[in-house]
Specification:
single chain; 27% helix; 7-stranded mixed beta sheet; elongated; two-stranded parallel sheet
Length: 223
C-alpha cells in the first residue's frame, strides 16, 4: 500500500473530519471516537496507550513524589508554591502551569480521571495556555519553577527535562497513572474497508510496525 503522510500533524479532530469528508483514508488519533463520529460510519483500530509524563526542568527544586490529586491541585491553581507539596524538602517558588490547547488529545485525556471530572478540568490564574499543541512548545515555555505535561515517548531525548515521579513511579513503569488511547480511525461504511486501509491497519497492528511509527512521531516532535 502506498501511504502519504502530511508533513504536519494537525490533531485528531482535523483527521477525523478529513476521513468523514472523504479526503483521507486513515487518521492517527489520541482519543476515542464520539458517538456522532461512529454514526458517520467511522471506526477505530486501537494500537494501545501512551503514557503522559508530568514534566519539569532538570533543575526544578521539587524532587518528591506527587499523587494524582496533588497534580490536579497544581493544575487548578489550588496549590501555587512548591513548598506546599508533600516531601518538598526545602523546595520553594511559585508554580507556573504550562497548559496545552483545549483541543489537545493529551489534555483531553485528563478528563478520563476522577480528579478531573465533573468540570474540574480547568486551570488557575498561574497557568499559561499555549496555542500550539506540541511537546516542543511546552518545553520552550518551561521555566525552572514551571510544570507541564507531554507524551512520555516524546521527552526521552530532550536534554534538561525530567518526568515528575507520580505515586512513586516513572513513565517507564506500567503503573505510572497518566496515559491516553492511541488508535487509527478509518471509514467503515457498510462494513467495507479499502484494501489499502486493510494493509495499513495490519501493519500498525504488528509490534514491529508500531515501533517504526512511534520512532517517526518522536523524531518529528523533537526535530
Amino acid at each position: 500500500a502506498n501511504v502519504t503522510v502530511p508533513t504536519r500533524y494537525r490533531g485528531s479532530d482535523h483527521g477525523v473530519k478529513a476521513i468523514a469528508e472523504g479526503k483521507a483514508d486513515l487518521a492517527g488519533i489520541g482519543r476515542s471516537l464520539t458517538t456522532a463520529e461512529k454514526a458517520q460510519g467511522l471506526a477505530a483500530k486501537s494500537i494501545g496507550r501512551a503514557k503522559i509524563a508530568i514534566i519539569v526542568k532538570e533543575n526544578n527544586p521539587y524532587t518528591g513524589s506527587l499523587t494524582l490529586k496533588d497534580f490536579a491541585k497544581i493544575y487548578r491553581g489550588e496549590v501555587t508554591d512548591w513548598s506546599q507539596l508533600p516531601n518538598a524538602k526545602g523546595a520553594k517558588g511559585k508554580i507556573q502551569v504550562i497548559d496545552r490547547p483545549d483541543t489537545s488529545d493529551t489534555r483531553r485525556a485528563f478528563a478520563n480521571y476522577q480528579v478531573f471530572q465533573n468540570g474540574q478540568l480547568k486551570t488557575g490564574d498561574n497557568a499559561q495556555k499555549l496555542t500550539e499543541d506540541s511537546t516542543q512548545s511546552v518545553v520552550d515555555q518551561l521555566s525552572n519553577d514551571a510544570i507541564g505535561y507531554a507524551p512520555a515517548d516524546q521527552i526521552k531525548n530532550i536534554p534538561g527535562i525530567r518526568a515528575v515521579t507520580l505515586h512513586g513511579t516513572q513513565p517507564d513503569n506500567p503503573k505510572y497513572p497518566f496515559s491516553q488511547p492511541l488508535a487509527y480511525a478509518y471509514k467503515n461504511q457498510g462494513g467495507k474497508i479499502s484494501e489499502g486501509t486493510k494493509a495499513f491497519l495490519g501493519y500498525v497492528s504488528d509490534p514491529a510496525g508500531q515501533v517504526v511509527i512511534k520512532e517517526s512521531i518522536v523524531a518529528d516532535e523533537t526535530a
